From TrEMBL:
It comes from the Bacteria. InterPro entries: DnaA_C, Trp_repressor/repl_initiator. PANTHER family: ATP-BINDING PROTEIN RV3427C IN INSERTION SEQUENCE-RELATED, CHROMOSOMAL REPLICATION INITIATOR PROTEIN DNAA. SMART domains: Bac_DnaA_C. Residues 23-90 form the Chromosomal replication initiator DnaA C-terminal domain. This is Chromosomal replication initiator DnaA C-terminal domain-containing protein. One of its GO terms (biological process) is DNA replication initiation. Gene3D superfamilies: 1.10.1750.10. One of its GO terms (molecular function) is ATP binding.
């Protein structure tokens, strides 16, 4: 990816383009919820943005080796306690909200498909 594509983005978003393990998670959640990475990093407390942050936090923590602080940097510099709260919210919402559960399952299946494609391309 050329530097011109992400020249205007702040550091966490540049890292998202260069980190091949983080980028599919953020991109998949943003695509399904119809939000941008800039909106996720904003201070907005809209429901769809908080759900997107919750999903990204959970899947990044589960599927990558990123620390809580690094995950928080993606969301505009939030600290580790916010990321812990979002991961706990994921567990609560998954257990109680059918719409959230179907969305999380859809993201999980897309990420699994990407992993399969990635492993097939290596062979």
């Amino acid at each position: 990816m050329t530097p011109l594509i992400y020249a205007g983005l702040e550091r966490p978003f540049r890292m998202a383009f260069t980190n091949r393990y983080q980028d599919p998670i953020v991109y998949t959640v943003c695509e399904l919820l119809n939000v941008t990475q800039e909106e996720i990093a904003s201070k907005s407390r809209l429901r769809k943005l908080s759900v997107a942050r919750c999903l990204i936090s959970y899947f990044l923590r589960r599927n990558t080796s990123m620390s809580l602080l690094e995950i928080g940097q993606i969301f505009g510099g939030r600290d580790h306690s916010t990321v812990i709260y979002q991961i706990n919210q994921y567990k609560d919402l998954y257990a109680t909200d059918k719409h959230f559960r179907s969305l999380a399952d859809k993201i999980q299946s897309r990420l699994a498909n990407l992993d399969q494609k990635r492993s097939k391309s290596r062979v």
